[in-house]
Design goal:
The protein is an alpha/beta fold. The protein has helices at 2-23, 44-47, 63-67, 88-98, 102-116, 135-141, 145-157, 180-187, 214-226, and strands spanning 76-83, 127-130, 166-168, 191-193, 202-210, 231-240.
Length: 242
């Protein structure tokens, strides 16, 4: 009986999804063409326009690894693709940040996790910490995009998200038009580890885009101050080209 009910529910869900798709067809986040049943969030044509980093296959230090050299000790760093102004990646990041496309962030997080699943550095990550968003911004956007990305990673790796351990204490201005010093000054001392950091040996910080790395550096240093023995890695969807 339970098997029959389960099959019936699945058939009903498929029927409902089919009807909804006829009325409200899913479209590509970038070009807005209707997606096929094989496509998700982004059509294949737009997917091919994304410049992926392929850092997961690097044997030597990547440009992202080098970005943090001499600033903060990290176990590993990763970005899924390069941020290109005026291109597909800018539109994707804008959509997940400002157009309520949280499901896109989760989907891209899953892809990043799948590419890193057997990576020797990332395979022993025990928990994820999304870069905190000030409550004011979270209220306006309806969610923290880094949490949505982390949700996708956590689903693939079956590990917890422990972002509640960290608070963003200062509402910061956009980093977009700031130089490197201004970016660092804008994010210095903005994070606070509340209570005792959970006793994980290796955690990964999750963000949407890395430019100078000032935000992640500030957060990593705060976590190291709370627990000097903790190992920290970084996962981001995008890396801005210098």
């Amino acid at each position: 009986m339970s098997t029959w009910l389960s099959a019936s529910k699945n058939q009903f869900q498929l029927l409902k999804d089919g009807v909804l798709n006829l009325i409200f067809p899913e479209t590509c986040v970038n070009c807005e063409t209707e997606l096929t049943t094989q496509e998700k969030e982004v059509c294949f044509a737009c997917w091919d326009k994304i410049q992926f980093t392929y850092f997961e296959g690097f044997q030597e230090p990547s440009s992202l690894d080098k970005l943090f050299w001499g600033r903060v000790e990290l176990e590993g760093t990763y970005a899924l693709f390069y941020f290109q102004r005026g291109r597909t990646t800018q539109k994707l990041l804008h959509a997940l940040k400002y157009q309520f496309k949280g499901e896109l962030a989760t989907y891209l997080g899953k892809i990043a996790a799948e590419r890193l699943e057997t990576h020797p550095v990332f395979k022993d990550v025990e928990a994820l910490i999304p870069v905190p968003l000030h409550s004011k911004k979270a209220f306006i956007r309806g969610y923290n995009q880094s949490e949505k990305i982390a949700k996708g990673i956590a689903a693939v790796w079956n590990i917890p998200i422990v972002g509640h351990e960290v608070l963003k204490t200062k509402h910061t201005e956009s980093q977009t038009r700031k130089d490197q010093f201004q970016r660092w000054d804008n994010v210095s001392s903005i994070f606070k580890v509340q209570g005792k950091l959970l006793e994980y040996k290796h955690i990964a910080l999750v963000d949407d885009v890395i430019t100078t790395g000032a935000t992640l550096e500030s957060l990593a240093k705060e976590l190291k101050a709370a627990n000097p023995n903790i190992q920290i890695s970084i996962i981001s969807l995008a890396l801005a080209k210098s």
